[in-house]
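User: Sequence in, structure out. Go.
Assistant: Echoing your sequence, followed by the structure tokens.
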Amino acid sequence: MDRLGPLAQSLPRRGVKLLRRLTKRSSSNFAFAFLFLGQEQRDALKQVYEFCRVVDDIVDERPPGPEGEAAARAGLAAWREEVARIFDAGDGAPQTPLGRALHQSRAHFDYPRHGFDEIIAGCEMDLERTRYADTNELRLYCYRVASCVGLLCIAIFGDTSPAAQRYAEHLGLALQLTNILRDVGEDALRGRVYLPLSLLAQHGLCDADILAQRYDARFVAFAAEFAELAETEYRKAWEALQGADLRALVPAEVMGRTYHRILVEIRDRDFNVYTRRAALRRRDKLKVAALAIARAGFGLRTTH
């Protein structure tokens, strides 16, 4: 008997094969997305994520104090120069193995240079602040560290149309806002509050309440409004997807739908993000992937 059961019956033949691969080989959200790509695309996506990890680690793993901050700024500056070399705007060839790999993959994928530069700028924001005054400040941070990753990814996936770019921007914002809400407790333990202070204040809260992990009616009301910010970005992303190449963007849709389900789970728990980190079970991830495959296979339009 097919382990996929009725889930497979609604899928096109290629979709069933992909879903079987998912059940055998995938355990993480990112792995799910990788399975929809050819080898060349996978290699390029690994390079993009490695770039993100490297520049993020420069900030997150710096030594404490002014010397650590200075070292981190120097490291980010060095990567800005490497990005210039990757795009033939600097002096000489890239100097790192990753830089050389990205330079080579540019021959196949039309990366927007500002995507790399903005990701570095987003990491640099973590050196400059641990608080965000309002949603506009937070939106800029989310755009840099998430939307710009999406803009690089769609170049790999094969659709850089204006609709796909809007999709990547809004989906990146949605994913990052979901991450922020999910990780409120973990970030508080590190002394960081990514929640906009002005919105907290509207609900009678301040950053000290978040650091103390106070879960009460005020926080629930705040979190519900914050979740709606993410929900709005998901809706805008799916509206933009109507004019994009759904087949090409299936990897992004798997990721987006997975994180939207995480947002739903957070809401179903009445926004208690302090006691347990929200995550999806494997079978729930498979359902999300199956729906993404079905939409792409039958050419269906997405709906909220």
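User: And one key feature?
Assistant: Residues 23 and 286 are 7 Å apart (CA to CA).
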